[in-house]
Amino acid sequence: MNKEIGNNFVDVDYTIQKIAIVKINRPEAKNALNGEVRKQLAQIFSELSFNDEINAVVLTGGDEVFAAGADLKEMTATSTEMLLRHTERYWNAISQCPKPVIAAVNGYALGGGCELAMHADIIIAGKSAVFGQPEIKVGLMPGAGGTQRLFRAVGKFHAMRMIMTGAMVKAEEAYIIGLVSQVTEDDQTIPTAIQMAQSLAKMPPIALQQIKEVALMSEDVPLNAGLTLERKAFQLLFSTEDKNEGVQAFIEKRKPSYQGK
Ligand code: CO8
Q1: DSSP labels for 150-192?
Q2: 60, 23 in Cβ contact below 8 A?
Q3: With a 6 A CB cut-off, is 32 part of the ligand 1 pocket?
Q4: Is 109 helix (H, G, I), strand (E, B) or coil?
Q5: Ligand 1, atom 20: nearest CA belongs to which residue?
Q6: CA 185 to chain centre
């Protein structure tokens, strides 16, 4: 089943069991993230967050380009108008998706596009992928996590170079500095992400969601608080049927079958 929303700027493919492939589809503007694209992404991720049939999500812009940033042709608003757009609500719908999200990036992931990729948990980059925060070149600055998530992902000196100079970073370098998880041939980017999503979809979903929640929280809390959160989540998993199934399957030397309970 292929589900299309609104002006079809974002497609969702549900044909593979347990996973959703979310594809930005605005090639004429290099998948630039205009308000409508962001709204549709938010709607889709909100739906996926509650969809019990889906255990993992692939987010992509297709084979040629991930997203060339916010739509520069929509940048004529005043500060007040920008504030009233409350675009953080759109981004929150993605960052708060409790399921694993894998970004499959070919071509440009610039500005808001790079920030969008960084909303994912894992980034698979084709060799053509180019990451950057070029907002400075148009008199702006990152506005959806570029000064925060990028800084945490790659550290101060790589982040500052990218944010302050607008330097573009190709896939291989992005891998070296820790901005992507894996580099593939371009024609393997989406298949690799799908394969990874399929293997994640077979994992115990409650454990995966706890890992995601606790690991992302580590960026915001002191070590001791984070360790306590981790311990509590770890203990919680002892009440899941999936934990019993996983351990029992190991002992019986068979493959586990997880039910998300
Ligand atoms: N916004 C609007 N349209 C765009 C954008 C964009 N960001 N990027 C490309 N396009 C359009 C072009 O205008 C062009 O349209 P047309 O055919 O009508 O002239 C079409 O896409 C094709 O683009 P190019 O001809 O420029 O293609 P090239 O292959 O020559 O170059 C580039 C591709 C390098 C991606 C180039 O288009 C470019 O530099 N784009 C702008 C990149 C940029 O500066 N991004 C940052 C934007 S600011 C930002 O993201 C702030 C984030 C803040 C919060 C997040 C909100 C989402």
Answers
A1: HHHHH-HHHHHHHHHH--EEEHHHHHHHTS-SEEE-GGGHHHH
A2: yes
A3: yes
A4: strand
A5: 29
A6: 20
Half-sphere exposure of 5 (CA within 13 A, CB side): 18
Angle 189-148-141 from CA coordinates, rounded to 5°: 90
pLDDT tens for each residue of 85-122 = 999 999 999 999 999 999 999 999 999 999 999 999 99
Contact between 5 and 44 (Cβ < 8 Å): yes
Instruction: Specify the amino acid at residue 176.
Output: I
Two tokens, residue 16: 């593979």
- What would the pLDDT profile of 9-51 be if each residue is shown by its tens digit? 999 999 999 999 999 999 999 999 999 999 999 999 999 999 9
Question: Which residue of the set 93, 115, 159, 207 is catalytic?
Answer: 115
The predicted-structure confidence for 64-76, as pLDDT tens digits, reads as follows 999 999 999 999 9
* Residue matched to tokens 């180019």: 130
Of 216, 214, 248, residue with least CA distance to 230? 214
For residue 215, give both structure tokens: 């690991």
pLDDT in tens, 180-228: 999 999 999 999 999 999 999 999 999 999 999 999 998 899 999 999 9
Q: Is the distance from the beta carbon of residue 138 to the nearest atom of ligand 1 less than 6 Å?
A: yes
How many CB atoms lie under 10 A from the CB of residue 176? 13
Give the HSE-up count for residue 252: Cα atoms under 13 Å, Cβ half-sphere: 10
